């Protein structure tokens, strides 16, 4: 009996490794291809010239001004998106949970809605809005951040929702209030510290999404990192691919950090 | 001892989509007194406490503490310490930091805070656990910290909403006695909500029994037990038998004996008499009309269930545990009231 079970277990573990390996190959192959492509010169010899070019910050902003601008824009976008998203979502979701539980379904629906709207439709819908934004706030790539907030809403909502579910917001905030804290204090000193993990993961997801966004920026004829890479690809494929690889690895690291942070409960701090 | 202030709730009403959670609740707490609110689930105990805390706004009525009208004052300005049924320690803070939270908001200096939190944690017997987080404490310990946290701010009123209901029986009685000791020590006027009658009777100066958003009776535990205002209170507080009898003005004839009637009883004709199991005796009697149905040993006491006659409801009789074994099912016995005053309601 136990022999059969052991055999089955061994078989399952073999199967698991096969699957993992296949997945790794699936993801690693293109990356390896990119690495290979960016480390060859015209004669097919190995060279680090492309990467050396990228690391030289001044060189990049001189030789590839669009790429530098796109990079700066994307970083700015990531920051704006994260800030607006958090300021919008955290108080709203907390408040709905505390005071308007009847609205929670509606809020969830609204937040998840962007998942079902294709980027192109979003752009069509946003075009008139953005003509106003441009009119009032001036012409700048950074305002794309508002569209990105909509884009990251479902993911951010999910992470924050998980965080809010894990704590008893109602009791905690009532305890805080009975001890003399106003709503602002409750938010900053009671709710936020206990949502740390959720807020971090929402922020990480927003950053990863923003850095990888192409469609909306391109359709609005704005230059962010991905758009710059795309156009660079037509003139200098090697640099473009190298940047692509770098940003992929960066996004991967962000997600890796996220799973690391998420795996730890906020209250599991050491006491000594 | 002199810190307590009086609390007056006047004609509080609160409706939730058609349900009258509070239906004209009026309640007075003397300075330094511990009043337990007792009642079945959904009778409005929590709502009453939350109205006093300011966590719920009454539709009408008044909340006064120490002579000041607080009805429209927000929770954080009311200066009330609360302990909740659910564990409510801030998970990201240690026990000490939890206790210091309210002091920090009151802008107390670090030294002063530390002294106060040490003192409070000592009071609840947790000096050894000051640097632990909630998840490192047991349920009982968490509620102790919550109590220390609530008392640290020297609240005008202490509010406890079933703080023990998540704990197991042993810890519950222990912590309940400790809450009473601490309450007497600090002298804070306290409202304690519970649906456990034993808990209420054990620690309260006075117990208020609620039903459907209203206060039925507010009295000291002994009085509540021996002179219930109506059958609901009699049923809810302690066990009670319902036996048919005939009322003659001041007394009622029941189970072959005359028993004085409590005020508020139905005074003429056939009635249902509410008699406590300890107010009945049972004796072996071969010629008796009653038959033992079952007997059980409960440690300090025993109970015998007896059928007093054909077509009559069985009654529960409390007996010393030493004699439980003398009664076995089928034995012929006689049941008699000992003569303690009883409540009678119109038969129906
Ligand atoms: N937020 C609310 N929304 C709707 N109805 C409510 C709300 N809070 C209380 N109620 C209703 O008001 C009534 C009284 O509730 P309350 O919580 O005060 O009862 P309770 O005596 O504390 O009961 P329990 O012993 O179960 O805690 C109940 O019928 C309950 O359904
Ligand atoms: Mg309740």
Polypeptide structure, described:
The complex is a heterodimer of chains A (272) and B (348). The longest helix of chain A has 37 residues, at 2-38. Chain A has one domain (65-265): MetI-like fold (Orthogonal Bundle), CATH 1.10.3720. By secondary structure, chain A is mostly helical. Residues 265-272 of chain A have low confidence and may be disordered. Chain A has helices at residues 2-38, 49-55, 57-63, 65-99, 104-112, 119-137, 144-166, 169-178, 183-194, 196-211, 215-219, 225-235, 237-263. Chain B is built from 8 helices and 20 strands. In chain B, 24% of the residues lie in helices and 35% in strands. Chain B is an alpha+beta fold. Chain B folds into 2 domains: 7-231, P-loop containing nucleotide triphosphate hydrolases (Rossmann fold), CATH 3.40.50; 242-346, Beta Barrel (OB fold (Dihydrolipoamide Acetyltransferase, E2P)). In chain B, strand 17 and strand 18 (315-320) form a beta hairpin. In chain B, the strands form 4 sheets. In chain B, strands 6-7-8-3-9-10 form a 6-stranded mixed sheet, sandwiched between helices. Chain B has a 5-stranded antiparallel sheet with strand order 13-12-11-14-20. A 5-stranded antiparallel sheet of chain B has the order 15-19-16-17-18, with no helix packed on it. Chain B is elongated and about 80 Å long. The chains are: A mainly alpha (272), B alpha+beta (348). Chain A binds chain B through residues 167-168, 171-172, 174-182, 185, 189-190, 193-194, 196, 266-269, 271, and chain B through 53, 55, 74-82, 84, 86-92, 94, 101-102, 105-106, 131-136, 146, 149-150, 153, 159. Residues 16, 19, 21, 39, 41-47, 195 of chain B line the site of adenosine-5'-triphosphate (ATP). Magnesium ion (MG) binds at residues 45-46 of chain B.
């Amino acid at each position: 009996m136990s022999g059969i079970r052991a055999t089955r277990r061994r078989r399952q573990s073999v199967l698991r490794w096969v699957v993992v390996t296949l997945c790794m190959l699936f993801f690693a192959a293109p990356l390896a291809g990119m690495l290979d492509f960016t480390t060859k010169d015209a004669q097919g010899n190995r060279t680090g010239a492309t990467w050396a070019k990228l690391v030289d910050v001044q060189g990049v902003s001189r030789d590839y001004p669009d790429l530098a601008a796109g990079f700066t824009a994307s970083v700015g976008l990531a920051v704006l998106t994260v800030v607006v998203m958090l300021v919008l979502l955290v108080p709203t979701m907390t408040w709905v949970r505390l005071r308007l539980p009847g609205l929670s379904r509606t809020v969830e629906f609204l937040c998840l809605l962007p998942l079902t709207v294709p980027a192109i439709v979003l752009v069509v819908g946003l075009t008139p809005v953005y003509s106003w934004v441009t009119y009032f706030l001036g012409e700048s790539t950074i305002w794309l951040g508002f569209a990105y907030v909509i884009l990251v809403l479902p993911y951010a909502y999910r992470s924050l929702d998980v965080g809010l579910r894990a704590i008893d917001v109602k009791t905690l905030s009532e305890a805080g209030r009975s001890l003399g804290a106003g709503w602002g204090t409750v938010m900053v000193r009671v709710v936020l510290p206990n949502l740390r993990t959720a807020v971090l993961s929402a922020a990480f997801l927003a950053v990863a999404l923003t850095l990888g966004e192409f469609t909306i920026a391109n359709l609005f004829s704005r230059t962010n990192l991905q758009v710059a890479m795309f156009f660079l690809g037509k003139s200098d494929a090697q640099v473009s691919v190298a940047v692509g690889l770098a940003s992929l690895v960066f996004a991967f690291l962000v997600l890796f950090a996220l799973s690391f942070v998420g795996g730890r409960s906020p209250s599991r701090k050491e006491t000594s | 001892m002199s810190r307590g202030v009086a609390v007056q709730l006047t004609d509080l009403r609160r409706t939730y989509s058609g349900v009258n959670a509070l239906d004209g609740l009026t309640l007075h707490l003397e300075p330094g007194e511990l009043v337990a609110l007792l009642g079945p689930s959904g009778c409005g105990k929590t709502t009453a406490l939350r109205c006093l805390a300011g966590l719920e706004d009454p539709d009408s009525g008044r909340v006064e503490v120490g002579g000041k009208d607080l009805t429209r004052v927000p929770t954080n300005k009311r200066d009330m310490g609360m302990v909740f049924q659910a564990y409510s320690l801030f998970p990201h803070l240690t026990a000490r930091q939890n206790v210091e939270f309210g002091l920090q908001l009151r802008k107390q200096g670090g030294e002063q805070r530390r002294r106060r939190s040490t003192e409070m944690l000592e009071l609840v017997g947790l000096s050894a656990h000051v640097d632990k987080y909630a998840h490192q404490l047991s349920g009982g310990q968490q509620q102790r910290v919550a109590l220390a946290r609530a008392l640290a701010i020297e609240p005008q009123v202490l509010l406890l909403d079933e703080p023990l209901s998540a704990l197991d029986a042993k810890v519950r009685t222990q912590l309940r006695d400790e809450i009473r000791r601490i309450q007497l020590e600090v002298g804070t006027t306290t409202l304690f909500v519970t649906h456990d009658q034993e808990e209420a009777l054990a620690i309260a100066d006075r117990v208020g029994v609620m039903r459907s958003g209203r206060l039925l009776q507010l009295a000291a535990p002994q009085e509540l037990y021996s002179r219930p205002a109506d059958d609901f209170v009699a049923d809810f507080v302690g066990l009670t038998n319902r036996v048919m009898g005939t009322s003659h003005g001041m007394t009622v004839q029941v189970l072959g004996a005359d028993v004085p009637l409590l005020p508020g009883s139905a005074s003429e004709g056939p009635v249902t008499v509410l008699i406590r199991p300890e107010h009945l005796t049972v004796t072996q009697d071969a010629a008796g009309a009653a038959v033992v149905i079952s007997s059980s040993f409960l440690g300090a006491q025993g109970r015998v269930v007896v059928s007093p006659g054909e077509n009559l409801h069985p009654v529960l009789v409390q007996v010393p545990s030493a004699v439980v074994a003398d009664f076995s099912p089928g034995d012929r016995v006689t049941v008699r009231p000992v003569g303690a005053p009883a409540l009678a309601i119109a038969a129906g």
